[in-house]
Amino acid sequence: MPSSPSDPRLQALLSSPHLWRAEAPESLLGSPRNADFSGIASGHALLDAALPWQGWPRSALVEIVSPVCGAGELQLVLPLLRTLSTEQQWSAWVAPPMSPYAPGLLGAGVDPARNILVTPTPAQLLWTLEKTLQSPACALVLAWPGPLSGKHLRRLQLAARKGRTLGILFHPRNIRHSPSVLRLATQTRGDTLQVQVLKARGSYRKDGFAIRLGAP
Amino acid sequence: MSSQLPRRPGRTSAGRLLKGVKPYRPASPRSAPPGPSASSPRASRRSAPLWYALCVPQLQSGGEGWVAQERLQELAARLGQVSATVSIQPPDSVVFEVRSSLTYFGGIANIRTRVLELLEPLLSSWGVESGLQQAVSPTPAASLLLARRGCNLLVYRRDSLRSALGSLPLDALASSQAPAKARNRSRQLRNSGLQVMRDIWRLPRQALARRFGPDFVRQLDVCLGDMPMPVTLHQAPPHFSTTMDFDYAVEHSAFLFHAIEELLGRLCLYLRQRELAAAHLQLLLRHEHREDTRVAVELRLASRSLTHLSLLLETRIQALTLVAPVIGMQLEVQRFDAFLPGHQAITGVTDAVHSADQTAIVQLLEQLQARLGNEAVRSLHCHAEHGPELAGSDRTFAGITGSAASGAEYDLPVAARPCWILEKPSALLPPAFRTLQLLSGPERIETRWWSRQPLHRDYYVARNHQGMRLWIYHERTGERAWYLHGVFD
Question: Which of A69, A135, B124, B392 sits a CA distance of 20 to 30 A from B385?
Fold first, then answer.
């Protein structure tokens, strides 16, 4: 679709309310073409470059596929947590596999007081996720929900858009045809974290790059 | 004019007027001429207040302080039917103003009968039927004095107060003070040859103030009405309860929401009228032939917002399975709190956007807690401790504070700390340990040597075959085993 049609007839057609534009809802949730919805800088230059939003998308659902938990995928998110805690925004950790360690977070520049830990029972997990994503209170929701169906992901995506929250789900396995806006796969090789963009809405590039894990 | 209260024997000596040479003369210019009352007693009767004092001395002796306080509250609540101005005077008395209700009840005798009617069941339930002492006078302090001494007197006019009080022993004055001070004072008075109040009236005011202190003179002034006595009014505690009956039994909880909104609407109106906020709500769902279902909602921050309260209640009800069809509902407030409108905005510490954000997070947390329970919603904290287990903790939200500086006093250790911690260190068996590659360390942590569980550990950072960076330690005492304690990222 041409972004700026010169033909006045075409312009009239485009402005007609009867015409449904498949692009319209996209631009609301952070399409790269909409300048108002630029992303949040991820803190990793390579990741920013690989994503159409020049960073994490806002008010959207992101999936990070990592075969094991604790193998470096948190490094992708830590700079974002740091940014949010300096902006005094709240982040929620829903059903993490281990307990977040406050001194470690503080050492990474994240204010633990701005992080909420929510540990629902498996039966309450989807409800909790939906509510935290829907609420405008949290800017970021990190969640380890286990296997989810496409239907549930769609619902969470809508909730994230409603609450203008960035939801990052960590999965052990890739869910195909997921409605999330961005899907990344990570794998650790030696002291680097290999990140592969599986899907980024609005972009066909499937870049891969490596992030060096902090040497202790 | 002074007379006995009807139907009760009292002392008779108060009727006489005293004519002293150097009478105790009040300083206040307001009261200097006794003119108007002398010339037209009716006028003074209409304008001046009349205080009814009730004293139950047994309250003081029996049981604990809070019991007496509660009983006095009950007394005051009942006396609200007789007077609009009721005040509790601990430890054992209640005073209330009756001049304004005199015409309505048709005289003091009727008021007295009414008071006895009201209080008799209450007193007999406490087992103190005979213990009621009462007195009526133009000043609350004098009424209290008379009632506490058990003189069932009725004094209409202020200028007869002196004579009415005259025969009271001076110890009565001291009873409202700290015991040590009171004992001191009464000894002083006795040594001066002063036994009853009448003796005081004969003395010059200046000398009294010099010898017994300005407090003593002030007390006399208050008794005689030359100085006002501040009286804190008793206010009945707020109470809210509202019910709704359904025309038909409701079987699905989703249909209850409309009714809940209506009940909450009434509640919010009540709260707004009284500048209150609800801190603890209870909703009873009534069933036929079954016990009511009780839904209690405890709020972190007392609220009177309709949307917030209904969100909380609906969250609770959604999680509920109805045991039987609901035929009615009752909404009660168990605890009220004062309403604090945007107190942060007033102090100027935080801007409006920030406090709006605060409300949003409080509401989210309350909603989560309502459904998941308090234990499931936790906050992260750092503590100034060397032991890794003690340095970081998560606990339930006690109350949200915008500037919860949990990391403020915490000095970061030199070595890196992992982002994940295992609640209990897990033992690394030798085969698993052999595959690890040590990256850095050791960091020696020795602490809690004063306690039963001292820590003597060497911490290392290691990488396993999956590429995970692990935080492991080696016990330096005991079995010298290896443990996994955290995961870095």
Answer: A69
Is residue B351 domain-shared with residue B286, that is, in the same domain? Answer: no
Which CATH fold topology does A39-212 show? Rossmann fold (3.40.50)
Strands (DSSP E) contained in A119-191 are 138-143, 166-171, 182-189
What is the average per-residue pLDDT within B208-212? 85
Residue boundaries of the structural domains of chain A: 39-212
Output phi, psi for A183, to 5 deg.
-135, 125
Tell me if B236 is assigned to some domain: no
> How many angstroms separate the CA of residue B261 from the nearest CA in chain A?
20
Q: Is residue B23 part of a domain?
A: yes
CB contact under 8 A, A68 and B468: yes
Range of the domain at B249: 241-340
Checking if the pLDDT of B475 tops 60, the result is yes
Q: Which of B321, B318, B331, B325 is nearest to B248 (CA)?
A: B325
Q: What is the rounded CA–CA span in Å between residue B119 and residue B79?
A: 8
For the cut 90, the answer to whether the pLDDT of residue A129 exceeds it is yes
- Of B380, B412, B444, which residue constitutes the final position of a domain? B412
Higher-confidence residue of A143 and A27: namely: A143
The pLDDT confidence band at residue B37, using thresholds 50, 70 and 90, is very low
Whether B176 and B292 map to the same domain: the answer is no
Question: Do B408 and B424 lie in a common domain?
Answer: no
Cβ of B364 and A132 within 8 Å?
A: yes
User: What single-letter amino acid sits at B218?
Assistant: R
Among B293, B312, B340, where does a domain finish? B340
pTM, to two decimals: 0.59
Are B401 and B473 in a shared domain?
no
Q: Which one, of A164, A211, A200, lies nearest residue A54 by Cα? A: A200
Cα–Cα dist B171/B168, whole Å? 8
**Does residue B234 fall inside a structural domain?**
no
Which one of A78, A101, A111, A212 makes the best mutation probe of the B interface by having the most chain B beta carbons within 10 Å?
A101
Query: In terms of domains, do B435 and B363 share one?
Result: no
- Spell out the residues 6+ positions from residue A4 whose beta carbon is closer than 8 angstroms to its own: none
ipTM of this complex: 0.81
Nearest to A98 among B415, B420, B466 (CB): B420
The C-alpha angle B214, B218, B219, rounded to 5 degrees, equals: 120
Whether residue B13 is found in the same domain as residue B153: yes
pLDDT tens per residue, range A57-104: 888 899 999 888 888 888 889 989 998 888 888 899 999 988 899 888
Query: Which one has a higher pLDDT value, A156 or A191?
Result: A156
Whether B171 is covered by a domain: the verdict is: yes
